[in-house]
Structures are given as C-alpha cells and as structure tokens.
Design a protein that fits this description.
Helix content is 42%, strand content 12%. With 281 residues, it is of the alpha/beta class.
Length: 281
C-alpha cells in the first residue's frame, strides 16, 4: 500500500453491510484508524471517505464502476479492488471478491437480498431502543471485523497448506499414497497429482485414510473395496485383512486404522483390488 491512513469517514444514520464491512476492512488495513460518521464531508478532511461524498469509494453516482460480470461495485467492493491484492494476493483476492463481496455489493445496489447483509442490518437500533445509531454501528463493525479476520486467516492458512502438502507429496516413496504428519487442507493440490490416497492423524486417535478425487470428474480415483463398506468394527480386521482397521465409511471413501503401517496396507489392498486407476463404478 502506498499510504497509511489515520482517519476515515462514512455516512451517519442507518447503516448497512456495505459501510460496516468497509469500516471493518479499514480497521484491519490501518490499525489505529479513526472512523467518523456524518452527513457532510468537511472540505479539509484528509483521510479516506467511503460510501459518501462522491469520491473514488462512493457508489451513488451515475457512473459507478461495474464488474465484467455485471455486478456493480459498492463501497466495500471499491475498497477491496484497491487494497485486496495486498492482503491476500491477486488470485485469492479475486476469489474472495466473487464469493464474499459481490453478494453484499449486489444487495446494496439492488436490494436483491443477502442473508449476511440482513444480519448486519439487524444491528440498527429498534424504534424504541435507547441506543444510538453510532453505538450500534460500532457493535456491528466489531462483528464484521472478526468475520473478515477469520476469513483472511483461513485463506492465508490454505495458501500455506499448499507448500506443506506439496512437500509431503514430493517426499512420498509411493506418490500414490501421501502421508501428512499433521492434517492440512490437501484437496486443491493433491487432486491434480497422481496421488490416490492421503493419510493423516485422526482426532480420535490413530489415522484416517481418505481417497482423493479426480479433478475432472470429482469422483474417487480408487475406492476402498465394497466388502469393507459399513461393516462393524469388530469384524473389519478379518474382512479387510488390515489388523487395526476400525471403520470404513459406507461410501468407501474413508477408513480409520490405529497403526500407520496398516494405513499403507489398506491403500495397497484397495489398489490391487481395483482393475485400473480410473474412478470406480
């Protein structure tokens, strides 16, 4: 970012998801920023002005920008267009705009309806409330800031997971079976490789083994044998030939074992029982 801001201004009175999430974003971008609300922007105001005043972060003019897909920008989207790449990177920022911001922008511009926008709107004081609009606005912004921070943390964590999972794949002796010493989001990376199974610790102890879907069909590259599906834990070791297996999902995409060697053994049995490496039928 080229400049850090210490103050910003938006409109007063009733608030909406647009100005609330815009404020939350600015608090994250510029810690310590002071955001005021009012109806007239002072001529000498030296800060970010949004959702009021007709500037680059207002969307109430006749010539407001519109995305290529036809979704018009609101203040939140305009701020994100300016600063989102610095937070998440270009690709992730674009996806976040599509999934999270555009529904809010569209609702603010058209009134089409958006559940999250309705939740934020419910923070406005009721007609018989003693609370002021500014007090309620601050509470709404605090919630919105937490939502955004959680969203950003999740996205950045997934970005870090790609490197972690890639290293596990590169270090796998058999590229068809990948072991993750600690669970991390794996699907986005492993689906595009020759990996067919992923092993990771179970929260209940032992290990989960999950089949990996094909990126084209979204179907499993190799399912576990049908004879294992939904069988009771006490009989699974005999049926499967895997001594510590305690669970096989009826959909045949997930098993649980208590020993790591048995996780590999189960994968090898499944691959041998499959005629080829295309999704099972």
């Amino acid at each position: 970012m080229d400049r850090s801001y210490s103050k910003a201004m938006t409109h007063g009175g009733k608030f909406h998801a647009d100005d609330v999430f815009s404020s939350a974003l600015l608090y994250i971008l510029f810690p310590g920023i002071e955001i005021t609300r009012g109806y007239v922007v002072p001529a000498d105001f030296d800060g970010i002005v949004f959702d009021i005043g007709g500037g680059m972060f207002d969307h109430h003019q006749n010539d407001i920008p519109v995305r290529e897909n036809g979704v018009p920008y609101a203040a939140f989207g305009l701020l994100w267009r300016e600063y989102g790449n610095a937070l998440l990177g270009e690709d992730a920022a674009k996806k976040f705009d599509e999934s999270f911001i555009q529904p809010l922008d569209l609702d603010d511009n058209t009134g089409c309806g958006c559940q999250l926008a309705s939740v934020i709107s419910s923070f406005n004081p009721n007609w018989d409330s003693a609370d002021t609009f500014d007090q309620c606005f601050e509470r709404a912004v605090e919630m919105a800031k937490e939502i955004l921070a959680n969203q950003f943390d999740t996205i950045l964590s997934k970005q870090r997971a790609v490197e972690y999972v890639q290293n596990a794949y590169n270090n796998a002796e058999d590229k068809r079976i990948v072991f993750l010493p600690k669970f991390a989001p794996w699907k986005e990376f492993l689906s595009e490789t020759e990996a067919m199974f992923v092993i990771f610790p179970s929260l209940r102890g032992g290990f989960n083994v999950q089949v990996i879907p094909s990126p084209e069909t979204k179907e499993a590259k190799c399912l576990f044998p049908a004879a294992w599906a939904g069988e009771p834990s006490w009989d699974l070791p005999r049926i499967s030939g895997v001594p510590s297996m305690s669970f096989c999902h009826n959909g045949r995409f997930l098993i649980t074992v208590s020993k790591l060697d048995d996780a590999y053994l189960a994968c090898q049995i499944a691959m041998r029982s499959s005629l080829h490496r295309t999704p099972a039928v």
